[in-house]
Design a protein that fits this description.
The protein is of the alpha/beta class. It has two domains: about 1-40; about 50-205, 3-Layer(aba) Sandwich (Alpha/beta knot). Helices cover about 35% and strands about 25% of the residues. The chain is built from six helices and nine strands, in the order αββββαβαβαββαβα. The strands form two sheets. Strands 6-5-4-8-7-9 form a six-stranded parallel beta sheet, with helices on both faces. Strands 1-2-3 form a three-stranded antiparallel beta sheet, covered by helices on one side. α2 packs parallel to α3 (about 90-105). The longest helix has 19 residues, at about 185-205. The protein is elongated, with a radius of gyration of 20 Å.
């Protein structure tokens, strides 16, 4: 009897079913683990391009970054190796699953892409888009440099960029250093804060 009542409560609850083609619909679970689809909740939508370049940090912390930044709307995660980044081969399939779970939680329709790691120098050799670099305590750093509708944000590892990397970044014509405040943030905090700062800046300009 208790089991029957529990099943009945579950079947009486509504939830959302969605995909990137049709949008989101109200649904109800039946006793045979099938869903009855009801009215449309919202039309499909997609996030504007937002690239986050994140240095390899500890796996648990990296998963946290991908989860939260997926919820915020990042469309591409490019993993980066630097002088001070963690030295391991990330499990891309597991990271993609983290992103899929995040889009289910926030009812976002399209999962972000998670790209295999590349070296920082390879990124700088090929980039032609504005690259906003979280770089504290530099004479070239500004608070809100965002002026691109489709930005590329770069966050360094624990310990930050090396002196040599900072020199290269500051000299690069496509790099724009920006500040996240007076405090030195952990890499995962900086990534989430950097994306949130960009989104706030864009909303303020509209």
């Amino acid at each position: 009897m208790i089991r029957h009542l529990a099943a009945r409560r579950i079947t009486e609850q509504t939830f959302a079913l969605f995909n990137e083609r049709e949008g989101s619909f109200e649904a109800r679970l039946s006793l045979r683990s099938t869903a009855t689809v009801g009215k449309r909740i919202c039309d499909p939508w997609s996030s504007p391009a937002l690239h986050l370049y994140i240095a390899l940090i500890k796996p648990k912390n990296l998963s946290f970054v991908l989860e939260k930044c997926t919820e915020l709307g990042v469309t591409h995660f490019q993993l980066i190796t630097t002088h001070f980044s963690q030295n391991y081969k990330p499990n891309l399939e597991r990271l993609e699953n983290v992103c899929k779970e995040a889009i289910e939680q926030c009812e976002r329709f399209t999962p972000p892409k998670v790209l295999r790691p590349i070296a920082l120098h390879a990124l700088l050799d090929t980039t032609t888009s504005p690259l906003y670099v979280a770089l504290e305590r530099s004479n070239h750093t500004v608070a809100k440099p965002f002026n691109s509708a489709h930005p590329h944000i770069l966050i360094g590892p624990e310990g930050g960029f090396s002196p040599e990397e900072k020199t290269i970044l500051l000299a690069h014509k496509h790099c724009a250093p920006f500040s996240l405040g007076n405090a030195i943030l952990r890499s995962e905090t900086a990534a989430i804060s950097g994306v949130a700062n960009y989104l706030y800046s864009i909303d303020s300009m509209q």
